[in-house]
Structure formats: structure tokens, C-alpha cells
Amino acid sequence: MKDYDSAIKTYRAGLKACPNVESLEKGLASSSRAKSENSEAHKSGQRAKAAKKASRNQSKKANNSDTVSSYVEQKRMELKLQKAALDAQLEFIEKLTQMSDEEKLQQLFNVIDDDHNGYIDTKELATALRRRNANMTFKGSLDKAIDMVAIFDTDGDARLDLDEFQSFLQVMLKELDVNFQEFAEYMVFQTTFAPEDEKIKEEEEQAAADKEVLAQQVKERGTLLEMLADPRLGEIFDLFDKKGTKLLTFKDVAIGLYQLTSDMEQSAKTSMELLLMLDKDDVRTINYEQFGRLMMGIVATLGKDKSFDQMADELVLALTTNTTISEEDKTSLFVAETVYADFQAAVRQQHETAISFGRLQKLFELWDTNGDGDIDYDELVAGLSKYEKSAGLNNNLEAAGVLDAFNNKQFDEGLKPQEFAAVMQQYTNTFGIDLHQLIDFMCLVSVLPEDRAEQYAAAYRETFSSDNVNHQMHGQASNWNYEFVGVE
Question: pTM surpassing 0.85?
Fold first, then answer.
């Protein structure tokens, strides 16, 4: 084993001096793999896995046996193999506990380094993180692994060597509040003896993740973390944040970009594109981390081959000297801000409409009692009457004009889902009630037994005044107008 250690040390030293030399990387991978495969613990693990696999085969043979004597014979062999596997696993644990911390670190590194290339990449670390936390999703483990590799990758190759992995472990152990010996033994055992079906699933998930894409994400994440930790980014953020709210609006970003480029039209356009990309929750502002992503894009655009470190002072200078905005540029900014607000409002409306339609579809299915895909006259009357009774309304259907479309033979074959949605939207408008609230109530009342529906409806009636509804209804009933855009 000493020969392997010496070879590994030599190859690592060579790669430190001459990074990315293929022959050195292959030599390191070969030595690391050889050391792992020749350790006593590894040999015990291999015996245990072989015995477990043979035991599963014997179990299948036993279940397919034609005679009782054959079944008993196969089961006896299965139990012997299970005992051999358990003995080998116990031996594996004993050998593992006898290792020094340095040997355990190397063993842990080797079992996580699935392709034995001498480095732990993002996918390999993600797999290890999931073995530590079974509830973690594949995407969640990848996101965590990208962060961890970005933080501890000191040489910028988007992967962890043994020294970087050790630094990662020290922080992780502190977070988990466990000691190294216990963690290393647990992880090595879990990785070595992971169930076959679990390994197959992991291989399928890993195959779907592109190594090069993940490596690029690690590098971008590393650049972002460096920028976020740089106090100069905080100073630049404050220069963008004119009102000191610690959040940047569309206007803040547009003016800041204008100070850097002296082009309001392009600044407003870029600001709009960036906020639409970064503001996933439609809060119309971006925070400090999102601002870091914004600055990565600005540096890439304005700095060409320069880094943030090289450009930071230039950015500060531009933001502290270019402070005058012409009237023409102010007008351009106002127009752009209005366009942005209108666009966001339209997006929000589309989202709300999609949610409403989904809920209406559920109500449609509940009221379509014969399952023919249409809401006929009787089904609509039954559904609305049950609602009106529960809501404390008295026979307002005719007065509200809800059934006029049927009376006028507009829907001889019943309401299709789109037509039903339009009718219910108009019905909601007539009573001046939030569509989501009304549809949720209707769905619940439709499925509850009469006694429970009445208990639920009592609380609803307290906030729903029939006098107010009657007043709104009489004012609007004459204005019912069914228009079904896009309905064939």
C-alpha cells in the first residue's frame, strides 16, 4: 500500500505544478483505484456484495422450484450465502474501524469518486449527499453539490481533489455535529452496500445530468460567491439603491445601467429583460444575490475579458460621476417603466386565469353528473341551486339571467368547459365575489353531505350579505352578455 501512497503523492504534486496534464491525471486515477481495490476493507466489501448477489439468485431459484426438496435445497444455499455476506460485512466494518483517519479519508474519497479519476465532481458529490439524506431529491442534491464544489474548489477546475474534499468535510461535519470517524464509516458502508435498485436509479439520474453543463454551473456559482463576498459589490449595490430599501426596482436598475452606459433606451430594455428573468415571484424587485447575478452579466457585457475584480473601481467611478439624466431620457424611462408594469400585470392575469380555469374544470366534472362532457340545463340548475341555498340566496337564478342562454336555445347540447367557464365568470362578476373563493366554496359544497355542507356554509354566509348581492344583481342582471372568444 505504501507504493500506492507514494505514487498518488507524486502524481498530485505533478498536477499541482502542471494542471490538466492528461497522463498525470490518468496515473493518479489508476493509482487511486489500485489502492482502493487492494485494501482489506475493499476486499471484504467485494466478498459481501458477491455473496448478497448470489443469495438473491438462490432466492429466485427457490421460488421457481418444482419440488419441495429442490425448494429446501435452494433455501439452504440462500441462507448460507446470506450468512457469508453478513460475515463479510462485519469484517468490512472491523477493517474500516482499524484504519487511520487518513486512510478513512482516502477510502471515503475513493468510494464517492465513482469513476476513479482522482476527483469528486458535482454528480458524484450529489449522490453522496443523497445517501446521507434519503429525503433529498436529485435536483436538491445537485443544487447543494454545485454550491459545495463552488465554495471549496480552490483551483477553479469545478471538482474537488482530496485536499479540497477534506476542507469540505470539516465544514460539513461541523454542520451535522458528528465526528469524522463515525461519518466516514457510515458513508463508506452506505456507499459500498447501497441496494442494487437504488444504484440503478442513481445511474439513470446521473446519466441525465451533463457533466460539462454542471461544471459550468459550478464555475458560475463560484464567480457569484466571490462577488457576493467582495465588499465593493455591496458599495455598488448601495449606489444602485437610491432609496436605501435594500431592494432594487426596475427604475433603480435602469438608472444604474444608464449611469454605466449613457444609453437610457438600452438600459431600460436590459433592465426589463433582467427583472423578468430574475424576478420569479413577481415582487418587482431584486435582492442582493440577484443583483450579483445582474453584475455578472454586466461585467461580461461591458468588461469583455475583464473580471469583476478588475472592473469594480471603474463601475464605482461611473456610478458616482454620471448622475445627470436629461429630460428626454427621463421620458424614455417613464414609458419603459409603464410598459414593464403593464406586461407584469398581463402575465399575472394570465396566471390567475389559468388557476381559475383549473378550478372551474374541477367544478365542471362535479356538476356533470351523467359524465357526458356537457353541463345541461338540469345539471346547471342543480349545481347553482345547491350553492345558492348554502350561501343563503333565495331563487335568484332567474332574476340574474343565468339561464337565459338555455332559454334562448343558445346551448341546445349543453355547456362545454369553455362555455361553462364564461358563464361562471359572468356569474361571479354579477355577485361581486372573488372567483377563486366562490369556486372553492362551490366545489366543497358539491361533494359534502347536506349536514356538513350546511355547517361549512354557515361561516360563509356571515361574510356574504344577500341584501348586498340582491342590490348588485338587480343593477347588473339586465347587462348579461355571453361572448365566448375562441370557442368553436
Answer: no
